[in-house]
Amino acid sequence: MEKQVLENHQRYLERKALYKSFGCDIDKEREFIVAKAQPLFGDILEAGTGKGHFALSLAKQGYRFTTFDISEEEQKFAKLILRYFGLDSLVDFRIENGEHLSFKDATFDMVFSVNTLHHLTNPYKVMDEFIRVLSFEGRIVLSDFTLEGFQLMDTIHKSEGNTHQVSKTTLADIEKHLITKGFKIEKHKSQFQEVLIAYHLLI
Predict the structure, then answer these.
(1) Homologous superfamily of 3-200
(2) Which end of the chain is more exposed for a tag (fewer CB within 10 A), N or C?
(3) Whole-model pTM?
(4) What is the model's pLDDT at position 202?
């Protein structure tokens, strides 16, 4: 296996171990989100690939999906993680700006966004794009950190000499926005993740 893939996998394992040392199993947190979003169906979009932790959770369960990120540099690590597990063929990687997606209306049946909301500059604009590309029977699955999760992230970033930047817009704010757009909301919570599932009321 190529050196770059192995080196990236080692970084991935070290990152998992770091979270575990603070009491957070990131694999279980991602699996919690997938479990609460069941049943998954149709064409799936992940918004905000990042380094690929959630993409790996989806791919490990055999799902084929499209994932996008605005950062080609970040997504490079995700591709390497998926390649290590031999799962990269399940994923269509795209570079996209969430505020102006290139996909046609009603392209996807499931739209996931995990731990991305608090990074967004214009979250309502991004949400409206999610709504545009979602089929009428589809669901938007949003997850972000709980208060304990954000405290964990602050601690980890401080330990590395960094600051964790967080938007003022919360999942609760987005929930209100989606309700005004005609969505029904279902909510779930683990120790570190809040999950919001939005779907149209089918009359």
Answers:
(1) Vaccinia Virus protein VP39 (3.40.50.150)
(2) C
(3) 0.95
(4) 66
Q: In 3-state terms, what secondary structure has residue 161?
A: coil
The distance of Cα 162 from the centroid of its chain, to the nearest Å, equals 22
pLDDT tens for residues 121-156? Answer: 999 999 999 999 999 999 999 999 999 999 999 998
CB of 19 within 8 A of CB of 182? no
Question: Tokens at residue 110, please?
Answer: 């499931």
Count of other CB atoms within 10 angstroms of residue 66: 18
**Read out DSSP for 2-53?**
-HHHHHHHHHHHHHHHHHHHTT--HHHHHHHHHHHTPSP-SSEEEE--TTSH
The set of residues, in sequence order, having a beta carbon less than 8 Å from that of 198 and lying 6+ positions away, is 139, 140, 141, 142, 175, 178, 183, 184, 185, 186
Which residue is it, tokens 């405290």?
Answer: 151
Please give the structure tokens belonging to residue 44: 């799936």
Region at 166 (left for phi over 0; alpha for psi -120 to 50; beta for the rest) = beta
In tens, the pLDDT along 90-108 reads 999 999 999 999 999 999 9
